[in-house]
Amino acid sequence: MKKIITFGTYDLLHVGHVRLLERAAALGDYLVVGISSDQLNVNKKGRAPVYSTKDRIEILQALSCVDETFVEYSLEDKGRYIQEHNADVLVMGDDWAGKFDEFSNICEVVYLPRTEGISTTHFIGNISSGKRVEVSGG
Ligand code: C2G
Questions:
Q1: How many Å apart are CA 88 and CA 83, to the nearest integer?
Q2: What is the pLDDT along the chain (138 residues), one digit of tens a residue?
Q3: Binding site membership of 17 for ligand 1 (Cβ less than 6 Å)
């Protein structure tokens, strides 16, 4: 069984997230997702996620392409998470291109293109101004 692991906050789940997860899942047989804790997101992005860690886990777990989730507490522990989950492939969006190459000694590392035109940060702005979000393709 080929195990895929990926990481992210997945706050205000949108099609960019879903497409990334579906493409990651398609690279193997089992997809594990490390979901950033609220505090890790504060460290990464300088703000707390809109949805709590618990809610983001429940939402991700409801997706048919996601087999398992766990909480990612620290970016520094990525190697340990990969090994604990026996992952064969680490998949990340290409906004992280090159950042996780050090793990190529324990698993394959793949960066997938991001979906253009949508991000949680833009989304928050759009919601407060009542503007629709339309993403092409897919
Ligand atoms: N993503 C995407 N297209 C978008 C937005 C996001 O493909 N328009 C991808 C990102 O590249 C990432 C995943 O969806 O692989 C989750 O995105 P975020 O929740 O923004 O995750 P991030 O904060 O990048 O966390 O350990 C590293 C991380 O915790 C990554």
A1: 9
A2: 999 999 999 999 999 999 999 999 999 999 999 999 999 999 988 999 999 999 999 999 999 999 999 999 999 999 999 999 999 999 999 999 999 999 999 999 999 999 998 888 888 888 888 887 788 776
A3: yes
Ligand 1 atom 30 nearest Cα: 8
Q: Tell me the H-state helices in 5-133.
A: 15-25, 38-45, 53-61, 78-84, 120-129
Does 9 sit in the ligand 1 pocket, CB within 6 Å? yes
Q: How far apart are CA 102 and CA 44, in angstroms?
A: 20
Atom of ligand 1 nearest to the CA of 20: 7
Ligand 1 centroid, distance to 87 Cα (angstroms): 19
Query: 114 CA distance to ligand 1 centroid (A)?
Result: 8
Q: Please report the DSSP string for 58-95 in residue order.
A: HHHHTSTT--EEEEE--GGGHHHHHHHTT-SEEEEEGG
